[in-house]
Amino acid sequence: MRTYLDCIPCFYRQALDAARIAGADELIQKR
């Protein structure tokens, strides 16, 4: 997956989605 500096919000959203799918609790997601 390529990430570009102009797509930082997309990158964070994908990271949060992956954390939710993986079953991480909210404490870990807030980091």
Please provide a written account of the structure.
With 31 residues, the chain is an all-alpha fold. The chain has one domain (1-31). It has two helices and no strands. It has helices at residues 8-22, 26-29. The longest helix is centred in the middle third of the chain and has 15 residues, at 8-22. The protein starts with 7 loop residues before the first helix and ends with a helix. The mean pLDDT is 73.
In short:
With 31 residues, the protein is mostly helical. It has helices at residues 8-22, 26-29.
Distance between the termini: 22 Å
Principal-axes shape call:
elongated
Could you say how many structural domains there are in total?
A: 1
User: Can you count the beta strands?
Assistant: 0
Tally of alpha and pi helices: 2
Strand content: under 5%
Helix and strand topology:
Layout: H1 8-22, H2 26-29
Descriptors for this entry?
mainly alpha, 31 residues, 61% helix, single chain
